[in-house]
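debug: dumping io for the single-chain case to check the tokenizer round-trip. Nothing else runs in this session.
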Amino acid sequence: MFSVKDMLKRFADIYNKSPDSNIGKLIGILHGELATLDDTFTRIREWRSIDGAQGTTLDRIGTNVVQSRGASTDEVYRVLLKSKIARNLSKTDINTIIRVLAIALDCDYSDIRIQEKFNDPLEPEPAAINLIRVPTRRLNEVGMSPLQFARIIQKTVAAGVRVAQIELSGTFALSSQYDVLETSSLGLADPDMTTGGELGEVYVPGDDYPLPI
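debug: decoded output
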């Protein structure tokens, strides 16, 4: 965005180009209006993306992809929109399911692991999968419960395939040496709480609500 000084330079030298002059004050008012207009256009450009849009703008994107909001917050709704777009292109194989979930949660493919249950040594099932690795932190950030996340997965897999189990495992591990405290990305945290592993958990809020999937 050009400045008031740049605008005044375009006038002939016969004019008083001081910002405090009458013409300088007039150009200052014009510059303020143009700056506001530029900010508006910048926001319009940024809000065309799902990550940047908010409120009713997200609702309009949802209308385009036929995904209603329900009671979802903007954070959860972004996951629904991304997963719906990815599901529209899904081939329902394991790699595509991983891709859909990674796009929805904005994480790496390696953060998600799926295991088919047809060869499970304990409880084999011909048409079922276990989601045995999920980025727990990302689910907590958007405020989505495993039950809600499971419904997204169920809508992604092929018809007749059941999502049997979702495991939310952390990175915490005990020390590799007896009676020795280890502080790293896997062990206990240091006094400043800047290192240490994450405990596994199941995120089930008390006010869980159904998603319009």
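debug: round-trip ok. The mean pLDDT is 79.
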